[in-house]
């Protein structure tokens, strides 16, 4: 008689940080360390209150200020300490950091074409390629799943990281244009088992209805 072993299920709630002034201005932040603005702090508090119905065994975060402050709001609600995981940082956009996409088109037209085409090996001269970014995001997720097998945890991160997670779980190619939104402080639930990465729910932001909603990227 054969016996079927049930896979160990791990659930992670990934949250994008709250809004910053650069988000509102549509500036590419990358790894520039920009803090939350007033709206972002209100979003973080609303998210923390809404997410508290889940019992998290751990809360991880990118160590950039905008993610760290968002994570602390949730950690305080959960009475946990934030665990820093630099691999959850946003992609480093090199020469594009601090400018808008429109400014990039004017200043660096060749780089802008690489940006639009989502070329996997282009690193914005002083930054990080998509291939490198994907590798460290996968490394971070695999590490969390190994260390929290069978548990439910939370992780605060950035739009670029969530883009990778969404595509991995839904089978969307990396080079195709983004056809989904990544709201600030929305709850995005994934599960991980022996069969791979699965998206449970995306972009839950009903808790932000009374908060001035972010400007899309």
Write the layout of secondary structure elements.
Elements: E1 10-16, H1 21-24, H2 38-51, E2 59-61, H3 65-78, E3 82-84, H4 101-107, H5 109-117, H6 130-147, E4 152-157, H7 159-170, E5 187-193, E6 196-204
Parallel strand pairs: 1-4, 2-3, 2-4
Antiparallel strand pairs: 1-5, 5-6
Helix pairs in contact: 2-3, 4-5
Structure description:
The relative contact order is 0.23. Strand 5 and strand 6 form a beta hairpin. With 217 residues, the protein is of the alpha/beta class. It is globular, with a radius of gyration of 17 Å. Helix 2 packs parallel to helix 3 and helix 4 packs across helix 5. The chain has a six-stranded mixed β-sheet. The longest helix is centred in the middle third of the chain and has 18 residues. The chain has a single domain, classed as 3-Layer(aba) Sandwich (Rossmann fold), CATH 3.40.50.
Which short descriptors sum up this protein?
6-stranded mixed β-sheet; 7 helices; 36% helix; alpha/beta; globular; disordered C terminus; single chain; Rossmann fold; 217 residues; 6 strands
């Amino acid at each position: 008689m054969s016996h079927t072993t049930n896979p160990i299920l791990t659930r992670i709630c990934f949250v994008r940080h709250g809004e910053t002034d650069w988000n509102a201005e549509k500036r590419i932040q990358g790894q520039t360390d920009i803090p939350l603005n007033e709206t972002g702090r209100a979003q973080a508090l609303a998210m923390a209150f809404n997410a508290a119905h889940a019992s998290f065994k751990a809360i991880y975060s990118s160590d950039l200020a905008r993610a760290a402050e968002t994570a602390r709001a949730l950690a305080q609600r959960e009475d946990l300490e934030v665990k820093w995981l630099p691999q959850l940082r946003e992609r480093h956009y090199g020469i594009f950091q601090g400018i808008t996409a429109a400014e990039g088109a004017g200043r660096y037209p060749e780089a802008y074409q690489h940006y639009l085409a989502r070329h996997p090996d282009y690193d914005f001269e002083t930054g990080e390629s998509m291939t490198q970014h994907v590798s460290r995001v996968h490394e971070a997720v695999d590490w969390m799943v190994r260390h929290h097998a069978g548990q439910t945890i939370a992780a605060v991160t950035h739009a670029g990281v969530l883009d990778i997670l969404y595509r991995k779980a839904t089978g969307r190619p990396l080079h195709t244009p983004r056809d989904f939104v990544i709201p600030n402080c929305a709850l995005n639930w994934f599960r991980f088992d022996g069969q791979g990465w699965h998206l449970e729910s995306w972009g839950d932001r009903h808790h932000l209805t009374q908060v001035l909603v972010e400007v899309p990227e």
